[in-house]
Specification:
heterodimer; A: alpha/beta; Rossmann fold; 8-stranded mixed β-sheet; 4-stranded antiparallel β-sheet; about 30% helix; globular; disordered C terminus; B: mainly alpha; MetI-like fold; 12 helices
């Protein structure tokens, strides 16, 4: 499959006084045409900032300080804000985590949808037709009447659907979905995921799906990157990841999932917390929490290596498969 | 339709408020020691002459009767004659009102012209050099007394540089404008400082909201982000503050008009108070109250237009 997006050694740092917070520190991955690529990790691991970097929507005092982001072979990192505007919304769209705060509260839905049509020669009628079509596509009942409503007149799930409608307004080739269901009820979560999946197939676009929910990854994604402390620690296709996780962090994440079936066993947790991104320990960032950490892990930072074809892992004990014997694939 | 109902309801609610205000306006000036008849005739007037004047203007009658007479006039839009000038109060007010209104609106315009760009820039460059400078200036402008700034500006531009008139309203459009610059600027200082702070804080809050990033992710221009998404949201709280300031500036016109010798309502009021010109004072207080209430009503209507989440 052809590459649509290739991120090479991306570094996005935040400068707070004399401290440097390495939100994304050397992430490399690719998104192929028509696939859903998942990024999974805990809060604060840099997955959202990775997505924002692709659209160059990093807030001050953050900056992309290194690496390349190739969209259809063209590096977007050096592009000016004006040049980025031709890509944002047209080629790459995004939906955010909080449907409650991601729509302008004092602007009609109509106008917020129309904003996505900027730069296209459309008459008022064409715009309305297209807006109604988009709202119908994402399942908003009586779309024509609701165009004149304001965001507060919709529920959270409906607002997320509207955000999706806006994002898809000009047929982007890549949709970045940054935890699109985290703020929603469980029942609505699945509806939104199914909707994103259907629209992806219908429009033939690629999706980057950011989540902290491995269940969502299993349901939606072809390939997955696991992020920890600003770095991608493991990346492979979804089936392999669940069947044969190689990084101890991935393994830990999977063991912390409830097994289901009324098993009253105490839930596994990964000891400790994620490290301070401004003061990362020497060596492997996960070493302080890793039950397999050796002396070398605390000294030297592991580089990503291809353990098997298409299965990248950043771990010194990569070929030991980390003593993950006895691990039952939790999902799939 | 709902809006008209609301406005109508609010106007009905104004009636009892106006009644209370008429009581206050009537009695408060009469509580001030001093006799208008005595002031009119001077210290050497005989008691008989003073009594004659009191009789002539009905000042000898019991207060409740005088009040009823005042109220009967109000209901007919007739505030009686000025005790001092012997002309209808209504004529005095109508001839002075344009000056005060011009001063207030010019001050408001200057405040907005300064506070919107400065507040926006400070907010988007929070913690920067300009932001800090603007914060220091705002605090200074809020802390300095208006009459002092007014006098200093007057001395500097009017007497030292001699580029602006020291008082009066001048002649012709440019003459008027030139003589309004200093008073309007003085009047606007505190308001623009307060508005700038408000807009700056609102902008700081709004630019970190998701909807601004989402709007940006649609690929629209920074100008549209600024106007439609950031400033429009920032103006919601600013409108409330501005209406309060406008009411305050109407009151402040007493000081400004005295300093710059502008023949407006403020000057009329202060002169009337010194002369114990009861009819003028009670009429001015009453009319100011109406104007303030109307400004409040307009603000509330405007607020619901700006923010669709607000329901009547």
């Amino acid at each position: 499959m052809q590459k649509l997006l290739e991120v090479i050694d991306l570094k996005t740092y935040f400068y707070a006084g004399d401290k440097i917070i390495k939100a994304v520190d050397g992430a490399s991955f690719e998104v192929r045409r028509g696939e859903t690529f998942g990024i999974v990790g805990e809060s604060g691991c840099g997955k959202s900032q990775t997505c924002r970097s692709v659209l160059k929507l990093i807030r001050n005092p953050g900056k992309i300080t290194g690496g390349r982001i190739l969209y259809e072979g063209r590096d977007v990192v050096p592009l000016s804000n004006r040049q980025m505007r031709k890509i944002r919304g047209k080629e790459i769209s995004a939906i955010f985590q909080e449907p409650m705060t991601s729509l302008n509260p004092i602007m009609k839905i109509r106008d917020q949808i129309y904003e996505g049509f900027k730069g296209k020669n459309m008459t008022g009628e064409q715009k309305e037709e297209r807006a109604v079509e988009l709202l119908r596509m994402v399942g908003i009942p009586s779309p024509k009447q609701r165009l004149n409503d304001y965001p507060h007149q919709f529920s959270g799930g409906m607002r997320q659907r509207i955000m999706i409608a806006i994002a898809l307004g000009s047929n982007p080739k890549l949709l970045i979905a940054d935890e699109p269901t985290t703020a929603l009820d469980v029942t609505i979560q699945n509806q939104i995921m199914v909707l994103i999946n259907d629209l992806k197939d219908k429009m033939g676009m690629s999706v980057i799906l950011v989540t902290h929910d491995l269940g969502v990854i299993a349901q939606m994604c072809e390939r997955v990157a696991v992020m920890y402390a600003g770095k991608i620690v493991e990346m492979t296709d979804t089936v392999t990841l669940f069947a044969k996780p190689r990084h101890p962090y991935t393994y830990g994440l999977m063991r912390s999932l409830p097994a289901g079936g009324g098993n009253a066993e105490k839930l596994y947790t990964i000891e400790g917390t994620i490290p301070n991104l401004a003061e990362l320990p020497a060596g492997c960032a996960f070493a302080p929490r890793c039950q397999f950490a050796a002396e070398k892990c605390r000294r030297q930072e592991p580089k990503p290596e291809e353990a098997e074809k298409g299965h990248w892992v950043s771990c010194h004990c990569l070929n030991r498969t980390c003593g993950l014997k006895g691990l039952i694939p939790v999902l799939k | 339709m709902r809006q008209f109902n609301y406005i109508f309801k609010r106007m009905i609610q104004m009636i009892p408020v106006l009644f209370v205000i008429s009581l206050i306006a009537f009695f408060i000036i009469r509580l001030v020691p001093g006799d208008p008849a005595r002031l009119m005739l001077g210290e050497k007037a005989t008691n008989d002459a003073v009594a004659a004047i009191r009789l002539k203007y009905g000042l000898d009658r019991p207060l409740p009767i005088q009040y009823l007479k005042f109220m009967r006039g109000v209901l007919h839009f007739d505030f009686g004659n000025s005790l001092k000038f012997q002309v209808p109060v209504w004529n005095l007010i109508v001839s002075r009102l344009p000056v005060t209104l011009a001063l207030t609106f010019l001050s408001t315009a200057i405040s907005l012209l300064i506070s919107i760009p400065v507040g926006y820039y400070s907010g988007t460059h929070k913690g920067g050099f300009f932001d800090r400078l603007s914060n220091i200036w705002n605090l200074t402008a809020i802390a300095m007394p208006t009459f002092w700034i007014g006098l200093m500006l007057l001395i500097f531009f009017g007497i030292v540089l001699k580029i602006l008139p020291v008082g009066g309203i001048g002649g012709g459009f440019w003459g008027h404008l030139k003589s309004f610059i200093l008073p309007a600027f003085t009047q606007s200082l505190m308001t623009s400082a307060l508005l700038t702070r408000n807009i700056r804080n609102a902008v700081v809050d709004i630019i970190s909201q998701d909807f601004v990033d989402f709007a940006r992710s649609k690929g629209i221009s920074e100008g549209e982000i600024k106007n439609k998404h950031i400033l429009k949201n920032a103006m919601i709280s600013t409108v409330t503050l501005l209406s309060m300031r406008m009411a305050y500036m109407l009151g402040g016109s007493i000081i400004i008009e005295s300093i710059f010798a502008l023949p407006g309502i403020g000057k009329l009021t202060i002169d009337a108070i010194f002369a114990r010109d009861y009819t003028v004072v009670q009429a001015v207080v009453f009319i100011f109250a109406i104007v303030v209430m109307v400004i409040n009503l307009i603000t509330d209507v405007l607020y619901s237009i700006l923010d669709p989440r607000v329901k009547y």
